[in-house]
Each structure stands twice: as structure tokens, then as C-alpha cells.
Specification:
The protein is an all-alpha fold. The chain has one domain (3-68). The protein has five helices and no strands. The chain has helices spanning 3-19, 23-32, 36-41, 43-46, 51-68.
């Protein structure tokens, strides 16, 4: 498993806990909004800053994509 994949799983689990839901439900939501790959590709940015910053970015992305759908 790559370090990017390991971090993605960590981020997914932490975001689920932060959101008060499960990792499966978070991943379903991200997949339905087509943002999963984007979040995975943000490894270089997300892994070196506070995880709360990643949560804020993800929340903004969800809000933006939800408005379109």
C-alpha cells in the first residue's frame, strides 16, 4: 500500500469521525459527487498541514458540488 493510499484511508476515517458518520457513508458521498479522486490527489497538500484544513477544503468541495447536483 502506498503512503498516499494509507493517508487517504486515515483522512477518510478521521473525516467520518469529524462528521459523526461512517467511513463507508463518507466514501459513498464523495463517490456520488465525483470528488474521491480529487481528494486522493491532494495528498501532497493535505498530509503536511493540519487535518482540520483538509476538512474545511472537503466541506467546501462538498458544498460546491452539492449545489450543482
Amino acid at each position: 500500500m502506498t503512503k498516499e493510499t494509507e493517508y487517504f484511508i486515515f483522512l477518510l476515517e478521521q473525516y467520518a469521525q469529524y462528521s459523526g458518520t461512517t467511513a463507508n457513508k463518507v466514501l459513498e458521498k464523495w463517490d456520488s459527487l465525483n470528488i474521491t479522486d480529487f481528494i486522493m490527489d491532494m495528498y501532497e497538500r493535505y498530509h503536511c498541514e493540519a487535518i482540520e484544513n483538509a476538512f474545511e477544503d472537503i466541506n467546501a468541495l462538498i458544498e460546491e458540488r452539492s449545489a450543482v447536483h
